[in-house]
Amino acid sequence: MLGKWYARWMFTWETALTTRDENRVVRPVEWGFEWLDDFLRSHDSECAPEDDRMVALNEAIVRESDSFFGYEPPSDYRLEERHPQLFPTNVRPETLAHDAKLRDMAVSGKLKSAQFLRFTSPVRTPYPENNLVNARWYPAPEEKQVGKPKQAMIVMPQWNADAFSHNALCSLFNRFGISALRLSKPYHDIRRPMELERSDYAVSSNIGRTIAACRQAVVDIRCCLDWLEAQGYEQFGILGTSLGSCYAFIASAHDARLRVNAFNHASTSFGDVVWTGQSTRHIRKAFEDAGMTQERLQKLWASISPVSYMERFAATPKKVLVVHATYDLTFLREYSLEVLRRFSELGVDFVSKVLPCGHYTTGETPYKFIDGWYLGSFVYNAFKKLAEGPSAAKPIMESARREELLSR
């Protein structure tokens, strides 16, 4: 009886949180082939219907994902110092007041400046602000790095995160002697085009643009790893939440350097999440209006679905945490359990943790502290084991060797 009451209360709370923002826009369905033009030139069948063309393109991307998620390394890495800004994605009064307060603090000199890694993304879009990658840099104190390999985490927050989301986790990792890059996803915070209130172009009813956004995020992650290696870092991990979890998984499946993986909410199919999740109901409406089905959407976004790269992910040694929520209405529990089942079948070294809340309520008290404990303790222990392992003293594998491993 108590369990049923708690479930109803949690679902009501979760629904309230996912419906409070009124600036979600239903946009018309677009195929977006132009966003994948470079790959399309050698993998297109123009005589086929558009939906069949896009399905075939996804199949080609999965087959040749090394090429699709490959990149020419940037040559313009630099550290930029500036005052942090919030870049809110909602227009709630309390959020706008917080944004105004931060701006006033910056003007009055009461807000400390921060360092940000900037470079040009190898994946270009029509938006100059989106093409300039942004990652807030949290270097660990030197005294906490003594006596162990230099370790670093890349942190990828959730869809529509503001620029302060997950910063506390980066500070926590610093206390463990682990540096962190808090990466702004494509179309998020400072990378968001001026025409948008939300980070809509990362996930939308434009099928090709959504695929291209994932491609850009994966490539940007790998470029951050290159920069960290150039700074002398030897052991790497990644933490992704929600959409960030999807991006993190695909990056790790294509880059053996990511040995520590924390997936904060995980699912199998990108299309399933968009179709069934509360937070993407406006995108589903666009597809339904166009006569689309869930099964078709699975195939149209197969190339950015973790399930397409499970075997590849499991092929290299990794330490993995999967956190899911019992009452999740955005990443349905059944899809998270499928991730765990596939990991078990493939022999992935993973830990599963369950939150007694939902997707959005993960960010509320007390659940955010439980989640923070799961994530922080896992990252600490995983890196500790890596540092103590037999491979800790070995030099970083050469780039050619990495490519050899990834091509198997």
Task: Provide a quick synopsis of the model.
With 408 residues, this protein is α/β, with parallel strands linked by helices. It is built from 16 helices and 9 strands. The chain is globular.
Describe this structure as you would to a colleague.
By secondary structure, the protein is of the alpha/beta class. It has one domain (25-78, 137-406): Rossmann fold. It is built from 16 helices and nine strands. Strands 1-2-3-5-4-6-7-8-9 form a nine-stranded mixed beta sheet, with helices on both faces. Strand 6 (235-241), helix 9 (243-254) and strand 7 form a beta-alpha-beta unit. The longest helix has 24 residues, at 207-230.
Strand order within the widest beta sheet? 1-2-3-5-4-6-7-8-9
The name of the CATH architecture is 3-Layer(aba) Sandwich
The number of helices is 16
The first-level CATH class name: Alpha Beta
Considering the protein shown, what is the CATH homologous superfamily? Alpha/Beta hydrolase fold, catalytic domain
Please trace the helix and strand order, writing H or E for each element.
HHHHEHEHEEHEHEHEHHHHEHEHH
Structure classification: alpha/beta
